[in-house]
Structures are given as C-alpha cells and as structure tokens.
Fold this protein.
Amino acid sequence: MTNFEKCRQEFTIKDTLLDVEGEEYIDFCTAIRRVRGKKVCEPSCAECYKWLKKEYKPQILDKVEKRYLGNIIRPFRDKVEYIKKCKSPAVQKEYIGISIKSDSNIILPSFKENSMYKKMKPYKKYTLKELGI
C-alpha cells in the first residue's frame, strides 16, 4: 500500500467541503496531514507528491510516546542499539528496555499490559529510525 492509497482510506465526511459555487470537493491535504501526523503541509507540493508515491509505513509510536523516549535517549542517542517492549514474567505488566552499545541497558518503569506502546511487538528490537525518534 502506498501513502496515496492510505490517504484515500483516511477521507471522512469532515474532509468534504463546499466551494464558493456550492460544489462539493475533497480536501486531499487534510487527509495527507492526518496520515503524516502533521498540522501543516510540506514546504512544496513536489515533496508531498514524492511522499505519496512511497510505500506506507504505519507509525509505531504516538506523539507522546515518541517525545518521552526521545527525551530519555537524547544525551546518548548515538549509542542506542535498539529499543524493545518486554513482558514481565508472572504479572500482567510490560516495560521498555533500551540497549546501549558498550554500556548497561536501561529498563523503564513497568506499565499495565497493552496500555502503552500498543503498536510495538513484544521482544522485537526496534531501531530509532523504525520508531521515528
């Protein structure tokens, strides 16, 4: 699926607007911004067109999760090997583990199972690029 196809799926009745003559049209930019998770358009339509032709990659982290992890790893981001979500044995809890090259790993506080980082698969090692951090 391309980004264009994903944007077409994202159209809702809210995107249908009336122009000056009362003709109905679809605000395609609204759907593009929704899929990209941005409030404003790209600097040029040419850049947006290139993005529409690329393969769609769903966002794994939401804005809050991305900002939180980004702030935690900021001082040593160049040393991060991967980030993964793990399950705590014998309890209904999960936690995030951050692997650091040539240093100790970081374990973040646990949280209720499936309450946060829902799109991350347990025990899968994600790079910062995959997570969009």
Summary: DSSP finds five helices and six strands in the chain. The chain has two domains: 3-53, 63-131. The CA atoms of residues 94 and 115 lie 9 Å apart.
